[in-house]
Design a protein that fits this description.
The protein has about 475 residues and is of the alpha/beta class. It folds into 2 domains: about 230 residues, Spore Coat Polysaccharide Biosynthesis Protein SpsA, Chain A; about 210 residues, Alpha-Beta Complex (Spore Coat Polysaccharide Biosynthesis Protein SpsA, Chain A), CATH 3.90.550. The chain is about 35% helix and about 15% strand. The chain is built from 16 helices and 17 strands. It has an 8-stranded mixed sheet, sandwiched between helices. The protein has a 5-stranded mixed sheet with strand order 2-1-3-8-5. Strands 4-9-6-7 form a 4-stranded mixed sheet. The longest helix is centred in the last third of the chain and has 18 residues. The chain is elongated, with a radius of gyration of 25 Å. The C terminus is likely disordered.
């Protein structure tokens, strides 16, 4: 089958996902022998994982006429039939599955070890109907050109249904195992991996785009597709070179007078091996200048002005193997760096000592994260490559990253890493408009945290790999 290629969109350093990819590649080598497999990422899109870009990058590496667009965690016995149906010219596209069966962690381990997936294997959830375009889809190159996947969809949710809707209008009906004379059930087996929580701003943005496809007609679908192809994501951030070990990320909002005492405290603490990055707003010129004059490295966030958006930008713009998150209202005490790094030899998340709270073994208010952990797994329920879910304004981000780190067993407390929190709630500072701004969003942030935690509890099968 010289005219066929398997395209696998993939970009993860998560060990479970990599194990699934190896299993899927081995499976395709057996069911489609001799067919080339092309694994491609999305080019590092800043706005979030973009499956459309990954597929296009894979397509650029082959001239094949028939393309199996295959997720890296899905297997389905009817794939060869779907490929033949498209190769024969009877259909421009095909989806080979009739239902989704999400294997649990034990069944997934069996399949990785070489077992054939069966309907008797234990599942994470009850089987549910598959959707065209999702998991595995076979298309002609011409069909993709006519109805490409929309790059406005980020991470996950909605992109497959929208793509299928466009192909339905422009490429005709697909081949499907339950159509034609030889009707049969054909389950798609989904291998277990750490979940990504489909909720929040990205999820809502995807829903908005999906509604455009839902409301499209045969007369308007081409315009919806054209709008998607015209979309441009923000350019990548070039991280600043550094020889430091720890990037001290300080998201700042107004309060320029805090810069000098912060930097004096940091310098007095013998901080060799760390570098301070003040992340500011483009409009906040006085604060930017104050931190620059005080000796910090000043970053201007283009993600937004909230705490969550600024620390995520700090992750993008730095290269150090560790990131410490603090506010501008702290005082460093000598020995904090050594104590934090010593604790980091045994954990990916270090809760430092704010010299006020008594629950710091459970709540990392000023955490130090390993970059490897942030890139591979992510500190939020949104998954790899993020520190915070950007739906939060400021409060409760620490609840989420601490909860997830505890669930994963990767957090430790470093009592000797003393970074004193000079917050009014501890009677160590005066309240001001910035504190009041955070307080004003406390209720909505708390509601968001409760929602996300409850969704996690309902939708995630607890395991050491979650």
């Amino acid at each position: 089958m010289d005219d066929v290629a398997v395209l696998i969109p993939f970009a993860s350093t998560c060990k479970e996902r990599q194990a699934n990819l190896a299993t899927v590649q081995d499976w395709y080598s057996r069911v489609l022998p001799g067919v080339p497999q092309i694994v491609a990422d999305d080019g590092g899109c800043r706005a979030g994982w973009t499956k459309a870009y990954a597929v296009e990058r894979a397509m650029a590496q082959t001239d094949a006429r028939v393309l199996v667009v295959a997720d890296s965690d899905c297997l389905c016995d009817a794939v060869p039939e779907a490929v033949e149906a498209v190769r024969s010219g009877g259909f421009q596209w095909a989806f080979p599955h009739t239902q989704i069966r999400r294997l649990d962690i034990d069944a997934t381990a069996e399949v990785r070890a070489g077992a054939q997936p069966t309907e008797d294997m234990p599942l994470e959830f009850k089987p549910y109907a598959g959707v065209a375009g999702g998991g595995i889809c076979v298309v002609t190159r011409d069909a993709w050109a006519e109805a490409p996947m929309d790059p406005r969809f980020k991470v996950t949710h909605g992109e497959d249904v929208a793509w299928a809707r466009a192909m339905d209008y422009l490429c005709g009906r697909p081949w499907h195992p339950k159509r034609g004379a030889a009707r049969r059930n054909s389950p798609l087996y989904h291998l277990h991996h750490p979940p990504i929580l489909a909720v929040g701003s990205r999820y809502k943005a995807n829903e908005k785009i999906a509604r455009m496809y839902d409301h499209a007609t045969s007369l308007t679908i081409r315009q919806v597709l054209a709008d998607g192809q015209a979309h441009q994501d923000p350019p990548p951030v070039e991280p600043l070179p550094s020889t430091a070990t720890v990037a001290v990320i300080v998201p700042v909002l107004r309060r320029p007078w805090r810069a000098e005492p912060f930097m004096e405290s940091w310098r007095a603490s013998n901080p060799a091996g760390s570098a301070v990055y003040a992340v500011t707003d483009a409009e906040d010129r006085a604060t930017r200048q104050a931190w620059f004059d005080a000796g910090a490295i000043v970053l201007t966030s283009d993600r937004g002005s909230t705490y969550a958006q600024k620390v995520n930008y700090g992750l993008e713009a730095t290269v150090e193997p560790w990131l410490l998150l603090v506010g501008d209202d702290v005082k460093f005490h000598e020995g904090w760096l050594e104590a934090a790094l010593e604790a980091g030899q045994h954990a990916d998340v270090v809760s430092t000592n704010d010299m006020a709270r008594t629950d710091l073994d459970e709540l990392a208010v000023h955490p130090m994260f390993s970059r490897r952990y942030l890139i591979d797994r992510g500190a939020s329920l949104d998954g790899p490559g993020l520190i915070c879910h950007e739906g939060y304004k400021h409060w409760y981000v620490d609840n989420e990253w601490s909860f997830l780190a505890r669930e994963r067993g990767v957090m430790t407390y470093a009592a000797g890493a003393r970074i004193e929190h000079l917050h009014p709630i501890f009677r160590k500072g005066e309240t001001d408009e910035v504190y009041e701004l955070g307080q004003s969003h406390a209720y909505e942030d708390s509601r968001l945290w409760i929602l996300r935690k409850n969704l996690y509890a309902r939708r995630v099968v607890r395991s050491p790999h979650a």
